[in-house]
Design brief:
Layout lengths: L22 H11 L3 E7 L3 E7 L12 H5 L7 E5 L3 H13 L3 E5 L2 H10 L6 E5 L1 E2 L2 E2 H11 L4 E6 L3 H6 L9 E3 L4 H12 L11
Parallel strand pairs: 3-4, 3-5, 5-8, 8-9
Antiparallel strand pairs: 1-2, 6-7
Length: 205
């Protein structure tokens, strides 16, 4: 019964409040996105074996030079960040402020909705985690877009877009940023969505 749902987001055998059910979904997404396979065998009272297979590759990654770092995309738009992980939120805020953006930061779903209601002025983009301790990113997005339909949306998550889409958490084409992200990755994706290059999914619909 457990094996059949093992890699589904939100499925957990832990007590309520003890687990999110996202750990193995994250593993599954990373393995599949890397062209690999994951295999699990388990017997009650004997234990569990997990085998992960990755394709061999001889490719090498190029290092990002100082010139590339100096030319990160910039902007002046207002960004609402909804993220309950303090370290991730602070990192995103720092990166975006250094790039010239005006940033509003919320530590959770309710905080994000409150700030969206009370902010005087346009919010150009909502950057939200998919899963929050006090709610879900899609819920925040729906409510924000009801009163601010011109706001663009970028989701971020610690598990992959493949895993999210395959399990119906987000629809295909949704603008998405994988965590952990680099300053280059965040800055580039931000401009991509704001400039309309991700038009099919930039509102998370």
């Amino acid at each position: 019964e457990v094996l059949a749902h093992l890699f589904e987001p939100y499925f957990t055998t832990k007590e309520r409040g003890k687990g999110t059910g996202l750990g193995l979904a994250t593993v599954y997404g990373i393995v599949k996105q890397s062209g690999g396979n994951i295999w699990v065998y388990s017997e009650p009272g004997k234990g569990t074996t997990v085998k992960i297979y990755f394709p061999r590759t001889l490719e090498t990654h190029e290092k990002v030079g100082t010139t590339a770092r100096r030319t990160l995309p910039r902007g002046t738009e207002t960004i609402l960040i909804v993220e309950d992980d303090d370290a991730v939120r602070k990192l995103a805020v720092t990166i975006l402020k250094e790039r010239g953006y005006h940033v509003i930061e919320a530590h959770g779903a309710e905080s994000g909705l409150q700030l969206a209601r009370t902010h005087d002025g346009r919010i150009h983009l909502l950057l939200t985690d998919v899963v929050l301790r006090d709610g879900e990113g899609p819920h925040v997005v729906r409510h924000v877009l009801e009163s601010r339909p011109d706001t663009k949306v970028l989701y971020m998550s610690g598990y992959t877009d493949d895993a999210i889409v395959q399990h119906g958490v987000l629809p295909p084409g949704t603008a998405f940023l994988q965590k952990p992200f680099t300053p280059q990755g965040l800055a580039a994706k931000m401009r991509e969505v704001l400039d309309g290059e991700d038009a099919e999914g930039d509102r998370g619909r």
